[in-house]
């Protein structure tokens, strides 16, 4: 597609529920990133893939967070046993790599009640 | 740990004014510098990308400069319009990941 597509656009989860957020990057983009943005804050890095390899997951806040990109294109961010503090906008970005800049999706707004 | 500071945190100006947004980094080892715009409830839209070998980029009424030696970047917006109202974020690409500031919330009044 022409841009980075994320779904769902909005997600309301009950505390303790598992959620899965999807990112469809720009075709051919090697690098894929997940960020978490709390209200009024800048995005914070979660994890990074180069093709199907997860090269950096240092930003994942706990072992309840898991990301995958099995075929090097679509990626899924899974959050198990959601907590209220997980409420945020989750942004996905992709890049050709190197010095080419990054393109972001519109994000998924997760609200845990 | 790389930290990014954006000043001012918020700015309110009348339409037509020229304005400058500032961005500074604790670590001056900047790779690429990218400025984004974020509208309420939306994702990030890339405005300008300054690659490591460059010192500035221009697009329409926007001009961004980068001083790697001091770890600073500025975004200049000429003849501001109400449609420019948004949050502006700068990010240092560092190594393979973006490090963002908390942004400058801009309001341009008609």
Can you walk through the features of this model?
The complex is a heterodimer of chains A (113) and B (110). With 113 residues, chain A is mainly beta. Chain A has no helices and eleven strands. Chain B is mainly beta. Chain B contains no helices and eleven strands. In chain B, the strands form two sheets. In chain B, strands 2, 4, 5, 9, 10 and 11 form a six-stranded mixed beta sheet that branches. A five-stranded antiparallel beta sheet of chain B has the order 1-3-8-7-6, with no helix packed on it. In chain B, strand 4 and strand 5 form a beta hairpin. The mean pLDDT of chain B is 90. Chain A binds chain B through residues 6, 31, 33, 35, 40-45, 48, 55-56, 59, 91, 93, 99, 101-107, 109, and chain B through 4, 31-32, 34, 36, 41-46, 49, 51-52, 89, 91, 93, 96-103.
In short:
The complex is a heterodimer of chains A (113) and B (110). Chain A is mainly β and 113 residues long.
Features:
heterodimer; A: 113 residues; mainly beta; seven-stranded mixed beta sheet; four-stranded antiparallel beta sheet; B: 110 residues; six-stranded mixed beta sheet; five-stranded antiparallel beta sheet; 0% helix; globular
Shape of chain A: globular
Specify Rg of chain A, calculated over alpha carbons: 13 Å
Question: Number of helix segments of chain B?
Answer: 0
Q: How much helical structure, as a percent, in the residues of chain A?
A: under 10%
User: Based on DSSP secondary structure assignment, what is the total number of beta strands of chain B?
Assistant: 11
Shape category of chain B: globular
Considering residues with a beta carbon less than 8 A from a beta carbon on another chain, report the largest interface and each chain's count. Answer: A-B, 25 and 25 residues
H/I helix tally of chain A: 0
Helical proportion of chain B, percent range: under 10%
Termini gap of chain A: 33 Å
Beta fraction of the residues of chain B? over 45%
Oligomer: heterodimer
Q: Tell me the structural class of chain A.
A: mainly beta
Pairing-aware structural class of the strands and helices of chain B?
mainly beta
Radius of gyration of chain B: 13 Å
Q: Which stretches of chain B are poorly predicted, pLDDT < 50 over at least 5 residues?
A: none
Order of helices and strands of chain B: EEEEEEEEEEE
Spans of at least 5 consecutive residues with low confidence of chain A: none
How many DSSP E strands of chain A? Answer: 11
Average of per-residue pLDDT values of chain A: 93
